[in-house]
Amino acid sequence: MERAIFAGGCFWCMVHPFDELAGIESIVSGYTGGTIENPTYQDVCGGGTGHTEAVEILFNPELIDYEALLNIYWQQVDPTDAFGQFQDRGDTYRPVIFYTSEAQKQLAEKSKYALQNSGRFTDPIVVSIEPAQEFYVAEEYHQDFYRKSPERYALTSAFRQHFLNTIWHK
């Protein structure tokens, strides 16, 4: 198994697009990139910890490769917004690809370059590509949120879905 870590706003909205793909062993919501160990949701949302909400994906590269995951990632975020995603604002929600190997870093940079040159966006692609740091699993009530609370998930993800449908499904 390999690990991929992606941040793209609220982690609730980042689980479902990857969750049921062949080759995905698990997907967990959590926090990474911060300065304290074992942060809570309240710590992270309170600011000052430096953590970003993210998802950690364990995948079988024989069934789904990292490039496929990157393609899915780009279609879940507004890659031109470095200050959060959709209604979620601030560093906690910044878009980041956290690489776990030099190969992942190179693939992420290549995919970012390709997206920038695709003409799909007129503004620069500002998603950060950073080395993975310690990943802390979020509280249980955040895991599989789209299944546990489908009505609230639908409300939370509506603005995101409208944007994504406009950009990717013209």
Topology:
Elements (H helix, E strand, L loop, with lengths): L1 E6 L4 H8 L4 E9 L8 H6 L5 E8 L6 H9 L9 E2 L2 E2 L6 E4 L2 H15 L11 E4 L3 E3 L7 H4 L1 H19 L2
Parallel strand pairs: 6-7
Antiparallel strand pairs: 1-3, 1-6, 2-3, 2-8, 4-5
Helix pairs in contact: 3-4
Question: What does this molecule look like?
Answer:
The chain is of the alpha+beta class. 36% of the residues lie in helices and 22% in strands. The chain has helices spanning 12-19, 41-46, 66-74, 102-116, 145-148, 150-168, and strands at 2-7, 24-32, 52-59, 84-85, 88-89, 96-99, 128-131, 135-137. The strands form two sheets. Strands 7-6-1-3-2-8 form a six-stranded mixed β-sheet. A two-stranded antiparallel ribbon has the order 4-5. Strand 6, helix 4 (102-116) and strand 7 (128-131) form a beta-alpha-beta unit. Helix 3 packs across helix 4 (102-116). The longest helix has 19 residues, at 150-168. The termini are far apart. The mean pLDDT is 94.
